[in-house]
Amino acid sequence: MHRPRKEMIAETRAKLIAAARHAFGTVGYAEASMDDFTASAGLTRGALYHHFGDKKGLLQAVIAEIDAEMSARLKIVSARADNFWQGFVDECTAYIEMALEPEIQRIVLRDGPAVLGDPSQWPSQNKCIHSMAESLGKLRDEGTIVAVDVEAAARLISGASLHAAQWIANSNDPRATSKKAVKAFNVLLEGLLRVPVPVGACERAW
Fold first, then answer.
1. How far is CA 52 from CA 9, 18, 20, 48, 193, in A?
2. What does DSSP assign to residue 1?
3. Does the structure show a pLDDT above 70 at 4?
């Protein structure tokens, strides 16, 4: 039975992304050979050029896939919280802690910026800022946080969390750096609250 062209295209793209993701995650972008991962996918360089333009375009697709998975995981984290504010804090914290994961470290936080430039300019970051601004707007309107320009706050929080994640990813001791980053980041978030959190009340047990 002849398969629909749309289905075949989706399968080819998925094979190339999977092969590239494995290569980028194990040997890194610079060392990953296009011939090796196209061969492992049973495809040709021509297929890669047709669907992604070049190796850089394929990296963008891999990062988009990982980013979508991260977003889905973060929504689950925030949904588990007892209230909307705690969900917001937990989601931001979980994003920073994801920088401990080897694949995210190497592909998204090290090779991504080196090849694709400033992550704050990536489309995924704009979506993140928009979503964060909506959450902050809700928290402001319900009186949980102080009156603040939600876009400005979202950009500052997003920038701080991204910088923290990159700091962790490039640290000689990522786990120790993560603990320091999360603790300081949570103190910064608490500054938004109308009613300050008592000292020590939100400290995590490490």
1. 12, 13, 12, 6, 45
2. -
3. yes
CB-based contact 37:27 (threshold 8 Å): no
Mean pLDDT of 162-191: 96
Identify whether the C-beta of residue 124 lies closer than 8 Å to the C-beta of residue 67.
Answer: yes
- Same structural domain, 169 and 126: yes
Domain assignment of residue 13, given as a range? 1-53
Cα-Cα-Cα-Cα torsion 42, 44, 50, 52, nearest 10 degrees, comes to 70
185 neighbors 92 (Cβ within 8 angstroms): yes
CB 192 within 8 A of CB 157: no
Q: What is the pLDDT of residues 14-53, one digit of tens each?
A: 999 999 999 999 999 999 988 888 888 888 888 888 888 8
CA atoms of 58 and 23, how far apart (whole Å): 12
CA-to-CA dists, residue 151 to 49, 131, 146, 158, angstroms = 38, 10, 14, 10
Task: State whether 46 and 131 are in the same domain.
Answer: no
Give the tens place of pLDDT for each residue, 82-118. Answer: 999 999 999 999 999 999 999 999 999 999 999 999 9
**46 and 67 assigned to the same domain:** no
The CATH code of the domain that includes 40 is 1.10.10
Task: Tell me how crowded residue 19 is: count the other CB atoms within 10 A of its CB.
Answer: 23
| Cβ–Cβ < 8 Å for 23, 33 | yes
